[in-house]
Amino acid sequence: MSRRVRLWLLALGGAGLAALLFAACLELPGFGGDRHPYGERAVRESLARRTANAVSSVNFDQRAFDTMGEMTILFAAVLGTVVLLRQTRDEHRAQPAPAHVAPPVRRYALITLPVALLVGLYVVAHGQLSPGGGFQGGVVAATALHLLYLGADYRALERVRPVGLYEVGDALGTSAYLVLGIAGVLAGTAFLANTLLPYGTFNTLSSGGTVPLLNAAVGMEVACAAVVLLARFLDQAVEIEENAVGTEESGE
Amino acid sequence: MNDMLIAVTLLLVAATATAAVAARDPVRQALVLAVLGVALALLFTVLQAPDVALSQLAVGSALTPLLLLLSVRKVRRRGRRKGRTE
Amino acid sequence: MMSVLPYLVAVWIFLAGCYGLATSRNLIHAVGCLAVCQAATYVLLIAVGYRDGATAPVHSDIEPGSRPLVDPVVQALALTDVVVGATVTALLLALILQISKRHGTVDPDELSELRG
């Protein structure tokens, strides 16, 4: 199919889709409307289980099974990336030369690093109370670690970041979530049901039953996953090089 | 007043999204996507969704552009090496 | 106007992303356009859950029941997808790096010529 024909086809399909979506928009309940039946029920349930952050309650209590599905997608995506980006036989590692970093950049990065890391962990720990949780905090903590790449250089980052350990951490986070779910079954209720622990006092760190624990498991998984992903891409972009003569390439 | 603010951030998001598609160079696109991430975080904050805003800020303005930039670097580096050896 | 504007913005972002995906000459650029399409779904979800004059569904600093709240369910949906979407983006990029290694190009048109 030539480029012209393809563009015409795209224009035709796009116009049809645009018309349908536009018509659908006009029929949707108006923006800012007052009718949110699911939202009201979800808030009531989260208050009944003494979880101050209703979003966390939906994620890790009322729809915990759905979150397990999301986690599985995340885990599978990381696994696929690791397999795809491993070092192959026709590649070798070239040590990158130590880079020169301007002193102000170095100072700023090294001061921000512990603060950012702490913020990430705080966000994970307070997911049941204030906006935040495992998904957000995990990403913040993982990206904070990479300030070291800006502030020092790649080799310094590699020293504080044994990738194998983070891969194990990723798997442990996922299994911890499953184990917490199965614990519910063993305790005589249902998979991932929030009946394992007392609900605690509203608006304190230990409220919400299993929500903080599931939050921590997800936080660990997401943080490790982001570190592993970035490590694999950094490896490819900075270190791994192809061997000079590529006979395998022309053979295909 | 509130409606005004929402409308302005919505248009900002729409404009940056269009710019991200229009930027044909992947490096420039990654930078525009980082701006889009911040604009989306702003929109979600205005729409009273701080949880989503936080996650969008961490992912959209840092993680995704970084991954895109690293991929571009790898692809370009390959191209350069191949050009040299041939 | 205000009652449909957010939905229309979501539609616009989605269509723009689709256009970019279909006309892209670089697979990495196409992944960026896919990220734009994803952003459209977040805007739509959060817009559906919004309520005029309401506050965030977090009770750490407000008395329960004292103020109307926006819908937490759609926020939870968008929140997990933001993070999971990023890892799926990473998987796509890894596939593209493999394509670039095996075929020496990331232009979809050249790739289809390669395979006939």
CATH fold description of chain C: Helix Hairpins
What characterizes the major β-sheet of chain C?
none
C-alpha-based Rg of chain C, rounded? 20 Å
Largest interface: pair, residues per side: A-C, 63 and 56 residues
Distance between the termini of chain C: 49 Å
Protein name (chain B): DUF4040 domain-containing protein
InterPro entries (chain B): MrpA_C/MbhD, Nuo/plastoQ_OxRdtase_6_NuoJ
Membrane topology (chain B): Multi-pass membrane protein
Domain MrpA C-terminal/MbhD (chain B): 11-77
If you had to describe this structure to a student in words, what would you say it looks like?
Chain B: This is DUF4040 domain-containing protein. Chain B: InterPro entries: MrpA_C/MbhD, Nuo/plastoQ_OxRdtase_6_NuoJ. Chain B: Pfam families: MbhD. The complex is a heterotrimer of chains A (252), B (86) and C (116). Chain A has 252 residues and is an all-alpha fold. Helix content of chain A is 68%, strand content 2%. In chain A, helix 5 packs antiparallel against helix 6 and helix 9 (163-186) packs antiparallel against helix 10 (211-239). By secondary structure, chain B is mainly α. Chain B has one domain (2-85). Chain B is built from three helices and no strands. Chain B has helices at residues 2-22, 26-46, 50-85. In chain B, helix 1 (2-22) packs antiparallel against helix 2 (26-46) and helix 2 (26-46) runs antiparallel to helix 3 (50-85). Chain C has 116 residues and is mostly helical. Chain C contains four helices and no strands. Chain C is elongated and about 65 Å long. Chains A and C meet through helix 1, helix 2, helix 3, helix 4 and helix 6 of A and helix 1, helix 2 and helix 3 of C.
Short description:
The complex is a heterotrimer of chains A (252), B (86) and C (116). Chain B contains three helices and no strands.
Tags for this entry?
heterotrimer; A: 252 residues; mainly alpha; two-stranded antiparallel sheet; 2 strands; 68% helix; globular; disordered C terminus; B: 86 residues; 3 helices
